[in-house]
Design goal:
This protein has about 280 residues and is mostly helical. It has a single domain (about 65-280), classed as Orthogonal Bundle (MetI-like fold), CATH 1.10.3720. The protein is about 70% helix and about 0% strand.
């Protein structure tokens, strides 16, 4: 390929990337800018992007509204997401480590069963029996019940990533720790766990994004307990209510607040994602 061809090829690649970036970023940017506009301006000139007068009044209203408790819902979303991240990291680490280093009867059969779950999607079929079980122990009307349910989930993809990462680590580390008197569990928490930081950072970002943006299950579990609603559930409830026609400013302000934590977490953990996925994909 001559010099002109290389320049043209590179120009096309950059043009495509810029176009994709604009299409991806524009909706997010438009929502953020709209959160600084008045409700009257949003309804009368919806095609306008930049606000005529920049104001934080929408955020003040969002936090002080009698019908839309942004602060409380933001707190609910935060503790729920953090709890889910902790549980996902713990279960993924334990499962991945056990299948990578453990030796027990039926290991291959159990691992094959777990692996087959990746190709089975039960969808909403599991919602009713899950609610039935949690109703028996009176945990079906709060976010805490949903967190408890997370403890019994099988993070198959996450388990695969951790298992691949652990298999790539030299077994001499385990042998040296065993000689020093470390147990099988002790090796996980003292030796392996600190080395899992790249893949765990990736899983943490993905788990936080999934739990923060989760809608169906939190809406079901908080249907009769509005004080437990997450911010995403609250935004959708306001959007579908009769007040939405006069509360676009609140919707945009709340949506911006809902997006910011995910964007911040992604920016912080972005450098770990590619590294963690590549490390977890190493064949053991």
């Amino acid at each position: 390929m001559n010099k002109f061809g290389r320049i043209l090829s590179r120009a096309l690649i950059y043009a495509t990337l810029i176009a994709v970036a604009v299409v991806t970023i524009f909706p997010v940017l438009s929502i953020i800018l709209a959160s600084f506009r008045t409700n009257m301006e949003i309804m009368t000139v919806p095609e306008k992007i930049l606000p005529s007068h920049w104001s934080f009044e929408n955020y003040r209203l969002a936090f002080n509204s009698d019908n839309f408790h942004t602060g409380r819902m933001l707190f609910n979303s935060m503790w729920f997401s953090v709890a889910c991240v902790v549980i996902v990291l713990f279960t993924s680490s334990v499962c991945g480590y056990v299948f990578a280093r453990g030796e027990f009867r039926g290991k291959k059969a159990i691992f094959a069963i777990f692996s087959s779950l990746m190709f089975i999607s039960l969808g909403s079929i599991t919602i009713y029996p899950t609610l039935k079980i949690l109703a028996t122990i009176h945990l079906n009307k709060s976010l805490f019940g949903l967190v408890v349910m997370q403890c019994f989930g099988i993070p198959v993809i996450n388990m695969y990533m951790v298992r691949g990462f652990v298999n790539a680590l030299p077994k001499e580390l385990d042998e040296a720790a065993t000689i020093d008197g470390c147990s099988f569990t002790g090796i996980l928490f003292r030796i392996i766990f600190p080395l899992l930081q790249p893949v765990l950072a990736t899983l943490a970002v993905l788990a936080f994004n999934g739990s923060w943006n989760s809608y169906i299950m939190p809406s079901i579990f908080t249907m009769t307990n509005p004080r437990q609603q997450t911010l995403i559930v609250g935004i959708m409830a306001l959007k579908n209510s009769s007040e939405s026609a006069t509360a676009w400013n609140l919707l945009f302000a709340a949506t911006t607040l809902a997006m910011l934590p995910v964007l911040i977490i992604f920016l912080i953990g972005n450098k770990f994602i590619t590294e963690g996925i590549a490390a977890g994909a190493v064949k053991g």
